[in-house]
Amino acid sequence: MIGKVCGTGSCVPAEVWDNQRLAEMVETSDEWIRERTGVARRHIARGEETTVYLASKASMNALENAGMKPEEVELIIAATISPDQIMPSTACEIQKNIGAVNATCFDLNAACTGFLFALNTAQAYLSQGIYKTALIVGAETLSNLTNWKDRSTCILFGDGAGAAVLKAEETGIFAQVTHSDGEKGGVLTCTSRNRIDYENHAAAPETYMQMDGKEVFKFAVSKVPEAIDELLEKAQMDVQQIDHFLLHQANERIIRSVAKRLKQSIDKFPINMEEYGNTSSASIPILLDNLNRAGALEKGDKIIISGFGAGLSYGASLIEWQK
Ligand code: COA
């Protein structure tokens, strides 16, 4: 059995911060941010727009797109590094909000690779015949974990959620490759220990996302093409047979570098980070939903999804668009 994507959905906060707004908060410029990252705007959660709120809306949109009722969902996996609470899980809260009363629910943390790991985990359950339908969600309110005084990170991130519904079918294409490198975890961190710096009466800096940008950049441009090559070999396919490469939307320069290394046209690499910034686990499902709703995906298209991020973790999965 293979899990096929039969619906997608997304939801982003209403409020939009453009680069100019950030230039009023830290020493930076619209020109620098666009040139170095490809980001022009990001959506920022306010008030009731929590991680669970965005995730639940995205999930409902995905179910509607799939033409399915919430009761039909048997598994919900929510990938997030910015849950509103430690417990209950984001997935259980989504279940409650959408009325997916028959689902087994849990969260998964693989940072920006979270949606990819959720897809692979759901596929493992579906291929074994344990469940027939799964809802996988990537949802983040990274604005809560962002140090808005640190120009090296605050320009990159945004909030949002994306979801996909998978249904088990007899035949189809799916292959996956994943890797983790805990030894290098120090280059991208955010701790929940000792939140308050009592001496300065402020949140301790390490409770916000901290990053060695150059090291993360080097990691991404070397490991993503490697994972894609490994995946193609595993699936016994040629890179030319792939119609779309959906990469985690972290930096446009990373995506351009991967396209070049794979000797593929950049046109095969859809990009939407200009509008949303890096939304971590939500970036790939938001992109998938944007493409689905724009009619940019044809039945039978071969799609490689590739994520990378904290852990360090990275990987690539191959799916066939069957919607
Ligand atoms: N605005 C203006 N200048 C900035 C700046 C900002 N927001 N952030 C850094 N700079 C400055 C630096 O201070 C440095 O100045 P200096 O040369 O006088 O010391 C200069 O710009 C270059 O900084 P550097 O850190 O070398 O820039 P970079 O080209 O590596 O770009 C990132 C920085 C963060 C955009 C880039 O490293 C990156 O995107 N890395 C990957 C991050 C990522 O994808 N993370 C998530 C993974 S899931």
Shape: globular
Q: What kind of sheet is the major sheet? A: 5 strands, mixed
Q: Which ligands occur here?
A: coenzyme A
Distance between the termini: 17 Å
Give the percentage of residues in beta strands. 25-35%
Helical percentage:
25-40%
Task: Work out the number of β strands.
Answer: 15
Order of helices and strands: EEHHEHEHEHEHEEEEEEHEHHHEE
How many helices? Answer: 10
Structural class: alpha+beta
Widest beta sheet: strand line-up: 1-7-6-4-5
Mean pLDDT: 97
Parts with pLDDT < 50 across at least 5 consecutive residues: none
The value of Rg in angstroms is 19 Å
What does this structure look like?
The two termini are 17 Å apart. This protein has helices at 19-23, 30-37, 51-66, 90-98, 114-127, 151-154, 213-235, 252-261, 273-276, 283-293, and strands at residues 2-11, 15-18, 41-44, 75-79, 104-108, 133-141, 159-169, 174-180, 188-189, 196-197, 202-203, 210-211, 244-247, 302-309, 313-320. It is globular. The strands form 5 sheets. A 5-stranded mixed beta sheet has the order 1-7-6-4-5, sandwiched between helices. The chain is of the alpha+beta class and 323 residues long. The model has no long low-confidence stretch (mean pLDDT 97). A hairpin with a 4-residue loop joins strand 10 (196-197) and strand 11. Helix content is 32%, strand content 26%. Helix 3 crosses helix 4 and helix 7 runs parallel beside helix 8. It binds coenzyme A.
